[in-house]
Specification:
The relative contact order is 0.17. By secondary structure, this protein is an alpha+beta fold. The protein contains two helices and two strands; from the N terminus they run H-E-E-H.
């Protein structure tokens, strides 16, 4: 659903490597939309350990409180 365009020379040093690392992790099965996920009102929308399906992701009609994670 999302494609990242070519990075310009204006990005900070290390950005291209971090982007490539994240891309590789996602392609190898890392899932971003795994609970617990809360909406911007603090309501639990996705229980811990539950992964949203593609259909559920496309049907989201609420805002997430924040997207957090560590991409190593």
């Amino acid at each position: 659903v999302v494609r990242l365009d070519e990075l310009t020379m204006n990005v900070a040093p290390g950005t291209a490597e971090a982007v490539q690392s994240a891309r590789t992790r996602i392609q190898n099965g890392f899932t971003i939309f795994e609970g617990p996920i809360y909406d911007n009102q603090g309501v639990l929308r996705v229980a811990e350990g539950v992964v949203l399906t593609d259909a559920e992701k496309l049907a989201l009609d609420w805002l997430m409180s924040n997207v957090r994670g560590q991409m190593e």
